[in-house]
Structures are given as structure tokens and as C-alpha cells.
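ugh ok fine here u go
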Amino acid sequence: MARLLDKYKEQIIPEMMGKFNYRNKLEVPKLIKIVINMGIGKARENKKILDDAIKHLATISGQRPIITKARKAIAGFKTRKGDPIGCKVTLRGKRAYEFLDRLISIVLPRIKDFRGLPTEAFDGRGNYTLGISELAVFPEINIDDIEFVQGMDITVVLSGKSNEQSCESLRLFGVPFRS
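structure:
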């Protein structure tokens, strides 16, 4: 079983029930899914960039990403409706807990000049989004294989009803927020 899932069941649920006065353990915010998105604006010009992004995202997440396509034409970005503009992966259940564990314990400490994540990145419904500007911080990725520097957005979707509940839940998971 995932290490973070065990921690959630044994430590986080009782602590959150005490702090927020939940009557039932099912009220405690839990991890629903993690969405990893890579927007690739240059994919229209160079198909290899999209292929590399798909390969790297599959290596990082452990499952095959889907290609996202433009919904409408935007002349300023030189995109047409249906053009491939990125890829994404949705992790649920055990895979989501394992990815969050690797993100907290391995990836975030490898970021240069990392001083913690901002608490302002919650969306008002308890979901948290962070951006990583380079793939090289993931240990699964070989630096020699990276031809194009590519970043990604990681959205952690929790069942919390407010930012405060979700922030406390993530803090108990071990996410390093700035003080």
C-alpha cells in the first residue's frame, strides 16, 4: 500500500477530526486526483517536441498521457481548432498518493533555491496548483534525453470544502509551505 495513504488513514484523519470538529471520518478532505498538464505551444511547428513531452510525462506518471487539442482557433497564438497543444495525465487512487509522496520527498527538495510552496495557489474550492519549470528535477528523467526544456502544471484536487481545510490536509501530508 502507498506510504502516504497509510499516513492519511493512521495520522491525518484523527488529527483533522480533532482540529475541524468533524463528526464522521468521511468528512475529512481526501485526495481525489492529481492532474499533470504540459502545455506545448510549439507542438504545431515541431512534432518531436510533443512526442518527447508524451514520453517524459509517461515516465514521470507511470501511465500514458492523452493529447490535448485546441478548442478554437486563436490567430495570436497561430493555432487552429484541433491542433495538438499539449498533453495531460490524471492520476487517481493509489497512483495519486504515490506520485504525491514522490513529489514531496524527492522532487521538491531537488528544485534549486526552493524555499517552500506559496499558500496563495489554492483556487477557492480547496484545489492546489503548482508549476514546475523543468523536468530535470524528476529522478526518472535522464538529463541527456531532454532536448527541449519543458515545464508542467500539477493540480492536486482534494475533497475539502475550503482552502483552509485543504491547506491543513496538505500540510499534514508533508507538503512544504512557506511560513
